[in-house]
Amino acid sequence: MRLAPGSVGWLLRHELRLAWFNAAGGKAADGRRRPGNLALGLAAAGCIVMHVASWFVVRQLAGMPGDDPRILLAVSALLIVATTFMLSSAIKACVVVMFERSDLDLLLSSPLPSRSIFTVRLLGVCAGTAALYLFLLAPFAHAGLLQGQFRWLGIYPGVIALAVLCSCGAMLLTLGLVRVLGARRTRVVAQIVGALAGALLVIASQLHALTSRQTQDGIRNTVLGMVQAENARDNLLWLPARAMLGEPLPVLLLGALACGMFVLTTWRTHRFFARGLQMAASTPSIAAGKASSTTPQPRFGRSLFRTVVIKEWRLIARDPQLLSQVMLQILFLLPLFFLIFKRADVQVQAIGAGLALLCSSLTGALAWIALSAEDAPDLLLVSPASQRTVRRAKLAAAMMPVLGLVAVPLLWLTVRMPTAGLVGLLVVCGAVVGAGLVVFWCGRPGVRSNFKGRGKGGLVMNVLELFNSLAWGALGWLLSAAALGPLDHMGTLVAAGAALFAIAVPGIAWMLRRRPV
After folding, report:
1. Nearest-angstrom CA–CA distance, 189 and 194
2. Dihedral (C-alpha) 197, 203, 207, 209: value to the nearest 10 degrees?
């Protein structure tokens, strides 16, 4: 079918093609982007496995009625998880659409109406948000269709409707942030909000597991009471779950809500969408004009060490995607802080091991950003600054935030339980220094945009980082247990071995170090 150039269908086909190529990441020898054969093979194998597993699951659930409270509760829990991650991915996609693609200025200057451009971009966000969940859940619909259980077909309209609602909410949130904060700050805030939306669910589940037994029983009884009530099926809270289970009226209501939200978003916000893009395009020039109109005041009071440290912190703070990915690792420290500050029966073993593992991982990430992902390494090499001082400052810039982050919780723990607090301080400092030195000596050069793939090609660094984390984590667990009571002979030997291994890892990294050129 040939689509008219400039039409909504023509633009949508181009948008979906770009999304497909970006997801695949492949590139042909002649420069054309194409899906990678390995990625397609893995996807096909995963699809077959999902269909086989879905066949047995659907057959096992064939005898259970669709209004069974257990099924309703399980589907609702699954939808809460999926919706949370849908919202996270939709917010990140909206930031990419508005700020990262760098092609909307050209489209808005063309004869195409802004409403069509905005509609296509929002449809692309919806399609990208729904794709992964359809890949995971559609096999259940196919298995149900083949077995004559047609209620499973409600997965398709349910997932699509939820993806549309999440995408519209994400776009409205992004546009609202542009109006309140401006285009430049919106990039940072939206990326952080997207990371928070995906991580808060994991954090909430961890915090729930760390609450008292009485609190957990109360939450469980409340939820079961809501499901087993006589008018539970009439509650709007269960509408998405009932739609996913194929009930006709909930499917229609959820679909109508999604369509109405999509029409309202495109109809009422497309003009502000265009203005937001103009704000984003004009902000750098305005900032540059302000900078040129004022006379800069040189500041030479800082030492080289302090200047490099502050420079590294500012570069991380100015990169929205990098900041959001680093924030994700910081969020997973919250359950341990909850243990330290709130729980009376402090689990010192979990605190010692958990802080060592998480602080080591966070330090390794920050050290890679500062040391291996330098944007201008050649400029630093030809500068008159001491390379040893620069690299030590970069290492300090990676270690100092982690130590500062856990300083207050460890001080509080030391006041309450001096031995456990000192053990935590020892293992955290050891894990942070070990992780930083491994990257300092064995890190391979990379680019900041490849933060998620920083481990590729650095097998030595990855293995040493893993051993460093495990050694200090095990040592933290055993020393924390020793603070509560003496270890047996085997525990003492394991603790001694973990201590020796933790000390040996930086030594191995020094022997395998990459000498700077």
Report:
1. 9
2. 120
Those residues whose C-beta lies under 8 Å from the C-beta of residue 509, and which sit 6 or more positions away, are 437, 438, 440, 441, 442, 464
Measured over the CA atoms of residue 265, residue 271, residue 277 and residue 280, the dihedral's sign is negative
DSSP annotation of 67 reads T
User: Residues 361-410: pLDDT tens digits?
Assistant: 899 989 988 888 887 777 888 888 888 899 999 999 999 999 999 998 88
pTM above 0.70, yes or no: no
**Coil, strand or helix at 34:** coil
Residue 7 in contact with residue 120, Cβ under 8 Å? no
Give the tens place of pLDDT for each residue, 461-479.
Answer: 888 988 999 999 889 888 8
Contacts 24+ apart (CB under 8 A), 266-272: 266/115, 266/118, 266/119, 266/122, 267/115, 269/118, 269/171, 269/172, 269/175, 270/114, 270/115, 270/117, 270/118, 270/119, 271/114, 272/175, 272/179
Hey, how many other C-beta atoms are within 10 angstroms of the C-beta on 453? 10
Mean pLDDT (the chain, rounded): 78
| Relative orientation angle of helices 334-341 and 387-416, to the nearest 10 degrees | 40
Distance (Å, whole) CA 269 – CA 274: 9
